[in-house]
Structures are given as C-alpha cells and as structure tokens.
Amino acid sequence: MKKLFSAVALVTAMVLGNSVNAQSYKTGLGLMIDVGEGGTYVGPHIKHFFGKHGAGEFDVLFGSGSTAVQALFQYNDPIPGAKGLSWYIGGGPGLIFANKGGGNTFYLSPAVGLDFKVTGVPLSFSADWRPKFFLSENGGSTIGRFGLGFKFTL
C-alpha cells in the first residue's frame, strides 16, 4: 500500500511541478464512459493541463445503482511521429456513493492510456485502462475497468 501511495505522490508532484504547456489543447470538456467488470458508468468529464506534461481529470459518473466521483492526476507525453497522439499515466482517488441500501466506497485508481486530439477540430478522444483498488472494509479490486473519453477542447 505504501508503494501505491508513493506512486500517486510522485505523479502528483510531476503534475504540479510543470509550468509550460506543450499540449495541443489546454482544457477538454465532455463525456466519460467507464466500462468493464462491475457495471457501466457514464457522466461529465473534464481534463485540464496544468503544465507541459501534467494534467488533472475530474469525472462524475452515474450507473449501476450508484454515483462515482473521481479525480486523476496524469503525466502526458506526445508520441513522436504521431501528430495529436499522446500517452499518459497517472491515478488518483475516487468515491462511490450507493444510491440505495449501501454505504460509500473509497478507492484508488491508476490509469494508463492514449489521448488523441483531432487536428483542426476542437475534439479529443481518450482510451485507458483504469483498474480500481477498494480501501473499504471488504477491500478487493476490479482489474477489468476501461475509460473512454470524448471531449470538446478549448
């Protein structure tokens, strides 16, 4: 568990330590679809670049009889020779609020994926792997989770 917290702290430091923006967009607003093991969640999504490589993502997702709120910090880097395509790695905390008959669940979610900004059009698409590690009484994890993001870029 200490290693996971150390990794999250390192990614956060990288995000907050960058001050130059080299991405093809500064902020993206749109829709996130979180699918896989444990149901499908859909909701609003924002990604904002704080610096050359650092970005923050915030999602409010609805589905499977509950609401999830998560914040992910990401290190992003362009892929040479692939205009508009970058890879990212990061992670962060999340909280699931059960709508009926259950308690709230806190989790940590690492993420690794690709982000594609369409040239000449204010659109960006992302796809990532984002397993969840639950820190509640019962613990456990859902490894088979994936995110699909569709954003209008500013």
Attribute tags:
1 helix, Porin, 10% helix, eight-stranded antiparallel barrel, mainly beta
Account of the 3D structure:
This protein has 154 residues and is mostly beta strands. The protein has one domain: Porin. The protein is 10% helix and 58% strand. The chain has 1 helix and 10 strands; from the N terminus they run αββββββββββ. The chain has one helix at 2-17; strands at residues 27-36, 41-49, 54-63, 66-78, 85-98, 105-117, 123-129, 132-134, 141-142, 145-153. An 8-stranded antiparallel barrel has the order 1-2-3-4-5-6-7-10. β8 and β9 (141-142) form a beta hairpin. The protein is elongated and about 50 Å long.
Strand content: over 45%
Second-tier CATH architecture: Beta Barrel
Mean pLDDT: 87
Number of domains: 1
N-C termini distance: 37 Å
Helix percentage range: 10-25%
Topology-level CATH name: Porin
Strand order of the largest sheet: 1-2-3-4-5-6-7-10
Name the shape in a single word. Answer: elongated
**Strand tally, please?**
10
Query: What structural category do the secondary elements indicate?
Result: mainly beta
Computed Rg: 15 Å
**Helix count from the secondary structure assignment:** 1
CATH secondary-structure class: Mainly Beta
